[in-house]
Amino acid sequence: MKRSGTQKDSSPSQLKDARINELGDWRGRTLAKIRQLIKEADPEVVEERKWMKPSNPSGIPVWYHNGMICTGEVYKDHVKMTFAKGASLEDPSHLFTQPGTVRRAIDIHEGESINEAAFKDLIRAAVSLNMSSAGD
Fold first, then answer.
1. Tens digits of residue pLDDT in 87-110
2. Are 34 and 69 in contact (CB under 8 A)?
3. Is the overall model pTM greater than 0.85, yes or no?
4. Nearest by Cα to 68 from 136, 135, 133, 118
5. d(CA 7, CA 20)
6. CATH says 12-133 is which class?
């Protein structure tokens, strides 16, 4: 898989660690927890940093397995996990807070927690969808 959007001497994991440490607040802790859950759900996940620009020099974390799974964007008042093919995923636990016709997102605000088992199920379902679409 082609890697893009990473800094020369830093791995995507190191860049994510730096971003988490840079935040130093509930958003960093939330992103770190989400990252841990993603790795637990899919030990083969590939992490990248994309879309670096002057207004967001550390970029956006992105997780892949046979295609994009999700992104993790940090805003002033929430952390947004956007699933690339979220509209095609079953969500029996109703984790998605943002509807969409292709993508769907989960917004996590300060003081909120996420259903960890249901989140891992979403990650596994997204990977499975990517695997089934790989030959398309």
1. 999 999 999 998 889 999 999 999
2. no
3. no
4. 133
5. 16
6. alpha beta
